[in-house]
C-alpha cells in the first residue's frame, strides 16, 4: 500500500449480528411487513458502511433502494431531509419514483392556504407527505436509507414518525442513521427516537467500538496480511477502536509493509480525535486546482451538486470534473444520489478541509455560494446561512426573515426560532423601530412555542422597549398578553402580571383603533385571574373582553374568551352558564379547524369537571378530548387530559385503571409540568389509599414542590390534601391539621371551594381523633362557609358529612344519622368512592352506637367489599377495627384484612386465603406466578419496600421459609381470589 494512499477495509468487522438482523428485517419487508430500523453510533463508527452493506443486500433481493441525508444546518431548514429524498426519487429511473419525487418536492415547498390555524395546516402537510412516502415503489419492496438524522429538521422527522406507524403493512424498510453522541437536549431527533422506541415503532442497532481482536482482524483484512502485534496495539491505542480512525491512521503513516517497527510510527503519528492531520496529509498530495475545488465544496456543505460547485469556483466545468475524479480517487468524495451530486466521505473530512481554508477565501466562497443559490431559488435558510458566513449581514438578515416566516407559518417552531436568531445576529444598523419590534416579537413567539421561556421573555422585553420608545402604543400593548404568559411560566406572581396588563390598558386611553388590543388585554386579564382562581375578577374581565371581541368580530379571541369564561363560571358555581359556553367554544373551534383552541377547550372542560366532582361529564369530555388531541397531534393537551382522566378513575374507585393511566401520562407527558403534577398526585392518592406511606410521601411531595414553584392553587392544593389525608391515616393528626390549615388558607385567599372540600372532612376527623369536638366544629364552620358560599353541587355533601361527624362525636347519634345518610347517598350519586366509603363506615359507627349491630355489620360488609375490590388497606383496617369493638367479635370469622368480621358474617366461613389478608393473598399469588418484588410493586402500584414487608408477613403467617413454599400454599386455595384491583 503506497504512502498516503486510500485505505478501506474490504470487510465489515464485528457487525455480523447487526447484518443478520437487517437481513431479517429486509425479508419481512419483502413479505409486506416493513419497519423502521435506526442505526446509532458515534462519528466514524461505521454507520454508513453498515447501511451500504444493507443496501447491497436489498438490491440483490430485488429492492428499490433510495437514500437521502441531512446536513449541518438542516435543523434550521424547512423539510431539508425530505427535499433531499425528493431529489433522489426524481432522479430515479423508474417513472413511478420520479413522479413521487416531484410530488414530494411540490407538496413540501407549497405553503398551504387551507382554513384553520397554523397547527392544522402543519398537520395536514405532515399527513400528506407521509401519505406520499408510504406509496413509494412500483409494486416491489423499497429500502429507504436516511443518514445523519441528528441534523434533520423537525418537519422531516415528524413525517418519519408518522411513516413509522404505517410501515408494518407495507413492503418498505426505512433505515436511518444518527450520531448517538450528538443527540443533544432539544434536538428533534432526540425526542423522536425516545417516542418511537417507547412505542415499539422502531428498532435500534447501536454500533460499538472494535475490540483489540476486531482491530487486528480489520488491519489484516485491509493490508492483506497478518499485522504484527505491535502495530495492532499501537493502532488500537491511537484509534480507540473507531473504524474510520483506524483506516485514516493507517493511511497517514503509510503502513503498507507492516513490520514490528510500525507500532512506534503509528504512536508517533499526530492524529487528533478529528483526524485533521490524517486528512490533510492526504490532501497535500492533490493538485492545486483539485485542492481549490475541495475547499469550495467544503464551503458549500457535506453534500453539493456539480453546477453550484462550478459556479462557486468560477472554473471551467471540465476542470471541476477532473478535480472531482481526483477527489474520488483519494476517497475524500463519493458520488451522490445522482450524476450531478456528490458527498464528502465523512463529515469529519469536510470539516477538516473547511477549517484548512483561509478565512478570506472562505468568506468569498460563502458569498459566491449564497448569491448563486439565491439566483437559483434555493431555500432562504441555506442562502442566509452562507451570507452570514460571508459577513454580508444585510443579505443574511433579509433571507433569514423570509425563511423564518415560512417556517413559522407551518408551526416549524424550532427552525423559525433559529432563523429569527440569525436575523437578530445580522440586524442592519438602520432598521426602522417598527420592523425591529416586529422581529423581536416574532422571536419571542417562536421561543415561547419552543418552551424557551427565558429567551421569549427577553425578546418580548426588547420588542416592548422598542415599541414604547417609538411611540407605538398599540404595538406595545399587543405584546403585554404574551409577556404575561411567559412571565407566569417563569414564576411571576399575579400582582406583577396584572400590573403589566393594567399598564398596557392604561396606555391605550384615547388611542383610536385599539379595540382589538383592548379586547385581548381583557381576556389576558381574565386568564391571569383564572389561573390564580380569583373568580370574581376573572368573570368581570372575561365578560368585558368577550363583549368587545364579539363587537369587533375577532372570532379567535371570542373562542379563547368563551373557554376562559366558561371555566371560571363553573368554578364559581354558575354551571348553567359555564358548561354551555365551554361546549359551544369547542364545537365552533372544531368547525373552523382552530385545532389549538379546540384542544384547549377540551382540556378546560374535562379538567374542570374532574375537579368539580362531575365525573360522568369529565369521563365523556376527557375521553373525546384525548381522541381529538391524538388525531390532531397536540400531545401536551392529550397527556394533560389523560392525567385528569386518571384522577377521575381514582375518584370513582377504578384504581387499577387509574394507576395505569397516570403512569402512562407521566411517561408520555414529554416534560409537561402540569401533566407531571397531576399524574403524580393521582399516583400519590393511590399509594395512600393502599397504605404505602413511603410511596405516597414521595409522589405527593414531588407534586407539591412543583405546584409551589408554580404558585397556583390548582397545582399545589391537591397534593397538599393528599399529604394531609396520609398524615391523618397514619395517626399524625397534628401534622394533618397543619396541612389542612395551609390548604384552607390557600383557598380562602381566592374564595375557592372546589379544592377545599376534601380538607373539610380530613380536618374534622383529625380534630375528633385528638378528642376535640369543639375544634372540629369550629373548623367545620370556617371551611364549610367557603364551600357553602360557592354552592358547587359536587362539593356540598362534605358540609353535611362534616356536621354528622361532629354530632356523632357529641353523642347525638340520631341527628348524626340524619346528616350522614344524605351525605352518603350524595357521594354515591356523585360516584365519589373515597368519601362515600368513609361515610358508610361513619353510618356503621352510628348503628353500633345505637345498638343496631346487624345494620352496622351490613355497612361494614359494603365497606369491606369496596376496599377489597380496589385494595384500600387503610379503609379495610378501619372497618376491622370497628368490627372488633362490636359484641362477640372474637367469635366472628375473619374479614378482609384478617380480623374478625361484623355480626352479619357470623354464619359465613372464613376467607379462603386465611390467615392472610386480601392484600397479602394478592401478593402471594403474584409470588406464585414467578414475579420479582419489583415486578409485583409495579403491578400493584406499591413500593418494592412495601412488597418486601408483605412477603415477610406472608412467610411468618404461613410458617414458611422460601418463596416456593408460598407458591405451593397458593396451589391449595380452591376459591377465587379477591377481585383484581
TrEMBL record:
Keywords: ATP-binding, Nucleotide-binding. SUPFAM superfamilies: C-terminal effector domain of the bipartite response regulators (SSF46894), P-loop containing nucleoside triphosphate hydrolases (SSF52540), TPR-like (SSF48452). Residues 892-904 have a biased composition (Low complexity). One of its GO terms (cellular component) is cytoplasm. GO terms for molecular function: adenylate cyclase activity; ATP binding; DNA binding. Residues 909-974 form the HTH luxR-type domain. It comes from the Bacteria. This is LuxR family transcriptional regulator. InterPro entries: AAA_16, P-loop_NTPase, Sig_transdc_resp-reg_C-effctor, TPR-like_helical_dom_sf, Tscrpt_reg_LuxR_C, WH-like_DNA-bd_sf. The keyword Nucleotide-binding applies. It comes from Planobispora longispora. GO terms for biological process: regulation of DNA-templated transcription. Residues 886-913 are annotated as: Disordered.
Amino acid at each position: 500500500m503506497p504512502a498516503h494512499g486510500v485505505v478501506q477495509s474490504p470487510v465489515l468487522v464485528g457487525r455480523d449480528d447487526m447484518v443478520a438482523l437487517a437481513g431479517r428485517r429486509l425479508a419481512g419487508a419483502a413479505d409486506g411487513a416493513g419497519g423502521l430500523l435506526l442505526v446509532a453510533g458515534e462519528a466514524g463508527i461505521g454507520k454508513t458502511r453498515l447501511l451500504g452493506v444493507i443496501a447491497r443486500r436489498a438490491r440483490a433481493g430485488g429492492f428499490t433502494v433510495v437514500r437521502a441525508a441531512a446536513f449541518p444546518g438542516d435543523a434550521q431548514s424547512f423539510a431539508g431531509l425530505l427535499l433531499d429524498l425528493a431529489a433522489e426519487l426524481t432522479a430515479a429511473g423508474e417513472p413511478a419514483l420520479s413522479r413521487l419525487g416531484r410530488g414530494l418536492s411540490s407538496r413540501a415547498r407549497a405553503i398551504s392556504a387551507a382554513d384553520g390555524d397554523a397547527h392544522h395546516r402543519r398537520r395536514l402537510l405532515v399527513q400528506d407527505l407521509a401519505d406520499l412516502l408510504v406509496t413509494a415503489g412500483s409494486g416491489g419492496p423499497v429500502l429507504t436509507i436516511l443518514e445523519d438524522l441528528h441534523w434533520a429538521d423537525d418537519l422531516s422527522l415528524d413525517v418519519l414518525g408518522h411513516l413509522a406507524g404505517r410501515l408494518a403493512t407495507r413492503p418498505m424498510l426505512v433505515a436511518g442513521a444518527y450520531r448517538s453522541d450528538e443527540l443533544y437536549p432539544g434536538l428533534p431527533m432526540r425526542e423522536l427516537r425516545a417516542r418511537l422506541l417507547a412505542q415499539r415503532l422502531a428498532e435500534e442497532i447501536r454500533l460499538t467500538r472494535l475490540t483489540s481482536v476486531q482491530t487486528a482482524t480489520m488491519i489484516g483484512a485491509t493490508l492483506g496480511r497478518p499485522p504484527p502485534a505491535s502495530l495492532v496495539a499501537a493502532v488500537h491505542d491511537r484509534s480507540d477502536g473507531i473504524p474510520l480512525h483506524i483506516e485514516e491512521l493507517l493511511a497517514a503513516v503509510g503502513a503498507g509493509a507492516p513490520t514490528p517497527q510500525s507500532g512506534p510510527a503509528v504512536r508517533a503519528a499526530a492524529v487528533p480525535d478529528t483526524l485533521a492531520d490524517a486528512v490533510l496529509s492526504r490532501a497535500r498530495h492533490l493538485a492545486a486546482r483539485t485542492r481549490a475545488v475541495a475547499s469550495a465544496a467544503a464551503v458549500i456543505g457535506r453534500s453539493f451538486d456539480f453546477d453550484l460547485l462550478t459556479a462557486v469556483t468560477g472554473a471551467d466545468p471540465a476542470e471541476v470534473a477532473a478535480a472531482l475524479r481526483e477527489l474520488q480517487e483519494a476517497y475524500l468524495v463519493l458520488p451522490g444520489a445522482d450524476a450531478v451530486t456528490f458527498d464528502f466521505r465523512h463529515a469529519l473530512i469536510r470539516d477538516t478541509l473547511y477549517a484548512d481554508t483561509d478565512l478570506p477565501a472562505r468568506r468569498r466562497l460563502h458569498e459566491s455560494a449564497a448569491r448563486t443559490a439565491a439566483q437559483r431559488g434555493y431555500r432562504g435558510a441555506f442562502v442566509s446561512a452562507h451570507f452570514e458566513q460571508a459577513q454580508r449581514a444585510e443579505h443574511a438578515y433579509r433571507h433569514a426573515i423570509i425563511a423564518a416566516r415560512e417556517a413559522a407559518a407551518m408551526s416549524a417552531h424550532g427552525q423559525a426560532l433559529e432563523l429569527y436568531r440569525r436575523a437578530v445576529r445580522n440586524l442592519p444598523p438602520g432598521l426602522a423601530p417598527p420592523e425591529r419590534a416586529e422581529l423581536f416579537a416574532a422571536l419571542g413567539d417562536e421561543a415561547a412555542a419552543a418552551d424557551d421561556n427565558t429567551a421569549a421573555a427577553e425578546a418580548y422585553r426588547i420588542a416592548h422597549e422598542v415599541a414604547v420608545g417609538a411611540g407605538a402604543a398599540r404595538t406595545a400593548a399587543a405584546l403585554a398578553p404574551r409577556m404575561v404568559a411567559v412571565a407566569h411560566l417563569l414564576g411571576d406572581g399575579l400582582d406583577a402580571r396584572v400590573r403589566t396588563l393594567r399598564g398596557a390598558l392604561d396606555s391605550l386611553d384615547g388611542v383610536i383603533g385599539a379595540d382589538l388590543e383592548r379586547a385581548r388585554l381583557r381576556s389576558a386579564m381574565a386568564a391571569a385571574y383564572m389561573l390564580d382562581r380569583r373568580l370574581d375578577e376573572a368573570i368581570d374581565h372575561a365578560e368585558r373582553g368577550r363583549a368587545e371581541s364579539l363587537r369587533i368580530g375577532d372570532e379567535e379571541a371570542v373562542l379563547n374568551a368563551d373557554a376562559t369564561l366558561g371555566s371560571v363560571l363553573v368554578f364559581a358555581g354558575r354551571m348553567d352558564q359555564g358548561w354551555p359556553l365551554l361546549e359551544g367554544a369547542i364545537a365552533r373551534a372544531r368547525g373552523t379547524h382552530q385545532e389549538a383552541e379546540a384542544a384547549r377547550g377540551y382540556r378546560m372542560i374535562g379538567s374542570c369537571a374532574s375537579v368539580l366532582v362531575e365525573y360522568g361529564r369529565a369521563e365523556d369530555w376527557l375521553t373525546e378530548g384525548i381522541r381529538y388531541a391524538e388525531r390532531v397531534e397536540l400531545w401536551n393537551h392529550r397527556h394533560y387530559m389523560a392525567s385528569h382522566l386518571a384522577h377521575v378513575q381514582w375518584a370513582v374507585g377504578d384504581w387499577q385503571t387509574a394507576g395505569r393511566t397516570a403512569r402512562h401520562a407521566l411517561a408520555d407527558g414529554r416534560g409537561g409540568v402540569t401533566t407531571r403534577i397531576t399524574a403524580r398526585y393521582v399516583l400519590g392518592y393511590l399509594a395512600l389509599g393502599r397504605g404505602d406511606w413511603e410511596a405516597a410521601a414521595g409522589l405527593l411531595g414531588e407534586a407539591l414542590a412543583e405546584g409551589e414553584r408554580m404558585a397556583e392553587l390548582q397545582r399545589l392544593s391537591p397534593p397538599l390534601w393528599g399529604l394531609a389525608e396520609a398524615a391523618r391515616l397514619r395517626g399524625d393528626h397534628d401534622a394533618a391539621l397543619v396541612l389542612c390549615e395551609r390548604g384552607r388558607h390557600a383557598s380562602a385567599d381566592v374564595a375557592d371551594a372546589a379544592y377545599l372540600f376534601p380538607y373539610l372532612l380530613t380536618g374534622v376527623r383529625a380534630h375528633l381523633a385528638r378528642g376535640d369536638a369543639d375544634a372540629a366544629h369550629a373548623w367545620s364552620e370556617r371551611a364549610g362557609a367557603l364551600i357553602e358560599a360557592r354552592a358547587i353541587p359536587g362539593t356540598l355533601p362534605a358540609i353535611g358529612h362534616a356536621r354528622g361527624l361532629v354530632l356523632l362525636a357529641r353523642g347525638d347519634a340520631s341527628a348524626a344519622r340524619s346528616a350522614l345518610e344524605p351525605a352518603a347517598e350524595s357521594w354515591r350519586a356523585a360516584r365519589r368512592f373515597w368519601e362515600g366509603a368513609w361515610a358508610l363506615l361513619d353510618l356503621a359507627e352510628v348503628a353500633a352506637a345505637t345498638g343496631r349491630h346487624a345494620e352496622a355489620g351490613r355497612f361494614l360488609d359494603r365497606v369491606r367489599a369496596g376496599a377489597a375490590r380496589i385494595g384500600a388497606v387503610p379503609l379495610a383496617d378501619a372497618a376491622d377495627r370497628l368490627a372488633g369493638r362490636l359484641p362477640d367479635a372474637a367469635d366472628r370469622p375473619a374479614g378482609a384484612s384478617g380480623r374478625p368480621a361484623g355480626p352479619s358474617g357470623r354464619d359465613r366461613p372464613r376467607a379462603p386465603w386465611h390467615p392472610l389478608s386480601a392484600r397479602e393473598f394478592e401478593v402471594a399469588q403474584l409470588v406464585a406466578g414467578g414475579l420479582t418484588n419489583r415486578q409485583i410493586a409495579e403491578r400493584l402500584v406499591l413500593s418494592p419496600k412495601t412488597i418486601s414487608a408483605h412477603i415477610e408477613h406472608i412467610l411468618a403467617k404461613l410458617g414458611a421459609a422460601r418463596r416456593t413454599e408460598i407458591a405451593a400454599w397458593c396451589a391449595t386455595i380452591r376459591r377465587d381470589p379477591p377481585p383484581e384491583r
